[in-house]
From TrEMBL:
Compartments, as annotated in UniProt: Nucleus
One Gene Ontology MF term: DNA-binding transcription activator activity, RNA polymerase II-specific
Protein name from the UniProt record: Transcription factor CBF/NF-Y/archaeal histone domain-containing protein
Domain of life of the organism encoding this protein: Eukaryota
Renumbered residue ranges of the record's region Disordered: 1-26
Entry's Gene Ontology cellular component terms: CCAAT-binding factor complex
Similarity comment: Belongs to the NFYC/HAP5 subunit family.
Cross-referenced InterPro entries: Histone-fold, Transcr_DNA_Rep_Reg
Principal location class: nucleus
Alphabetical UniProt keywords: DNA-binding, Nucleus, Transcription, Transcription regulation
Length: 80
């Protein structure tokens, strides 16, 4: 597993601004939601088994979009 995925990101640093004191409860709630979201994402990444042969994306559409890009020369048949 990649080292940056082993722990949650460090908390954001806040500067104390007395004029913004009325926003602090809302900001704390948003920070809590953000932290909870990333903790759920980390849990899912670390604990949900991944089968990389099963695609949840519309590969035909992806290939069609790739073919419109001049930098993409060949769309491999191995994507099937």
């Amino acid at each position: 597993m990649l080292s940056f995925m082993t722990h949650a990101p460090p908390p954001l640093q806040h500067h104390h601004d007395p004029s913004m004191a009325h926003h602090q409860p809302m900001q704390q709630a948003h920070m809590h939601l953000l932290h909870s979201f990333w903790m759920r994402q980390m849990h899912e990444i670390q604990n949900v088994p991944q089968d990389f042969k099963v695609h949840h994306l519309p590969l035909a559409r992806i290939k069609k979009v790739m073919k419109t890009d001049d930098d993409v020369k060949v769309c491999s048949r191995s994507m099937h």
